[in-house]
């Protein structure tokens, strides 16, 4: 292959194929979001909230661990190979849930879902960043996350509708088999972005682009040594900690106030829908006004939205609060990954992104653990309210400690 040209517009077909692929990556998670917590109570008789949320813990930790290694593996073996492996593992998720005879089978299915997401989602975002110019990273990540969380939202609503009209199992998870088929076909057809990465490495050399930068050093820089990377990791962890709580507790909380499964599905879908749609704008906006402002106030808005859900009463008001929660998440989600891409060199970008995504997605597990603990010891109301304090703290840290990263590596 000859010389490649970096840029989204110059490689629009490949870029849009990757966007479309990540829509179906997100769909795999969306199928679960409305119905699985309810299945835990109704089909398996799980009285403890902590037990009911164990599937999110297994998902969060497996995705976090895979994220950590996915970047290094992708740097070594190529993005496309890792993407295909991720989809191959995803096939077993809906199959196991359909035929599960005990809750531990659901937990195993979600370990595999975490691996699927850690590999497939990580690769789609890394491949887009490979293609994009330095001043297009927010746009690239925003479009990736828009597609993924649109998939989450649409299939969360769709699975809720199917469950309401048929049953909690197996009908909603038949959708998962169809999603797998489409996803694996797209992954086989998409072109690898390795030539674009090599072009970036060749064209860009920075003082941080050290030869033989070890995995241990990348981990230390991303976790605590670099103030911008460490704030990004904490903000990402806190954002997904909140999402792990929302995933597990929202269906249960809204069921206690008398909403139907279909109504719960709409609210549960509205949150990732807003999250997905607004990333179309926040990613682009971060390329223009910078990263810090969106990260700081996005964390604040997440905290306020969670408390608003507890204060208001009525389907419409809960729906508005869920949308605001999605907007707050959209403000930070693509911006954090773009900020990391600003700071790190191309040669260890995927590895650093893997460390960030390790911390970010471990938030799912920590959120489910904390939410289950507080719900069992207090109630659902207090569990949501206490977890909401954490995004507020992360916002304060970003405001005080983080520098603007937009022009640091362009």
UniProtKB/TrEMBL annotation:
Listed name of the protein: MFS family permease
Keywords from the UniProt entry: Cell membrane, Membrane, Transmembrane, Transmembrane helix, Transport
Subcellular location: Cell membrane
Organism: Alkalibacillus filiformis
Chain segments annotated as transmembrane: 12-31, 51-70, 82-115, 146-166, 173-190, 252-281, 293-310, 316-336, 380-398
Stretches assigned to the Major facilitator superfamily (MFS) profile domain: 14-403
Topological category with respect to the lipid bilayer: Multi-pass membrane protein
One Pfam family here: MFS_1
């Amino acid at each position: 292959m000859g010389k490649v040209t970096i840029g989204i517009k110059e490689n629009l077909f490949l870029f849009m194929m990757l966007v479309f692929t990540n829509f179906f990556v997100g769909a795999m998670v969306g199928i679960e979001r409305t119905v699985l917590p309810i299945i835990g109570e109704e089909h398996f008789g799980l009285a403890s909230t902590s037990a009911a949320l164990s599937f999110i813990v297994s998902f969060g930790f497996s995705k976090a661990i895979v994220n950590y290694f996915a970047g290094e593996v992708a740097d070594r073996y190529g993005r496309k190979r890792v993407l295909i492996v991720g989809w191959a593992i995803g096939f077993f998720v809906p199959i196991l849930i359909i035929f599960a005879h005990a809750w531990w089978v659901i937990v195993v299915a979600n370990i595999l879902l975490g691996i699927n997401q850690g590999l497939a989602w990580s690769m789609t975002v890394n491949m887009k960043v490979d293609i994009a110019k330095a001043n297009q990273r927010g746009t690239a990540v925003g479009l990736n996350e828009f597609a993924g969380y649109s998939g989450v939202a649409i299939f969360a609503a769709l699975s809720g509708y199917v469950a309401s009209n048929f049953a909690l199992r197996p009908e909603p998870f038949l959708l998962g088999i169809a999603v797998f088929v489409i996803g694996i076909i797209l992954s086989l057809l998409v072109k690898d972005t390795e030539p674009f990465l090599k072009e970036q490495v060749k064209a860009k050399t920075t003082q941080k682009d050290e030869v033989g930068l070890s995995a241990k050093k990348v981990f230390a820089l991303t976790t605590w040594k670099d103030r911008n990377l460490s704030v990004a990791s904490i903000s990402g962890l806190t954002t997904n900690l909140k999402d792990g709580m929302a995933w597990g507790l929202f269906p249960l909380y809204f069921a206690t106030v008398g909403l139907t499964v279909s109504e719960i599905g709409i609210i549960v879908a509205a949150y990732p829908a807003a999250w997905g749609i607004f990333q179309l704008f926040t990613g682009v906006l971060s390329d223009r006004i910078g990263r810090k402002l969106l990260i700081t106030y996005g964390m604040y808005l997440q905290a306020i939205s969670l408390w608003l859900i507890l204060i208001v009463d009525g389907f419409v008001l809960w729906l508005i609060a869920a949308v605001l929660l999605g907007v707050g998440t959209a403000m930070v989600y693509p911006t954090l990954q773009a900020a990391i891409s600003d700071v790190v060199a191309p040669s260890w970008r995927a590895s650093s992104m893997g460390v960030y995504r390790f911390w970010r997605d471990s938030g799912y597990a920590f959120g489910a653990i904390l939410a289950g603990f507080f719900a069992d010891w207090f109630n659902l109301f207090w569990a949501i309210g206490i977890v909401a304090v954490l995004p507020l703290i992360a916002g304060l840290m970003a405001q005080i400690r983080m520098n603007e990263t937009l022009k640091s590596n362009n």
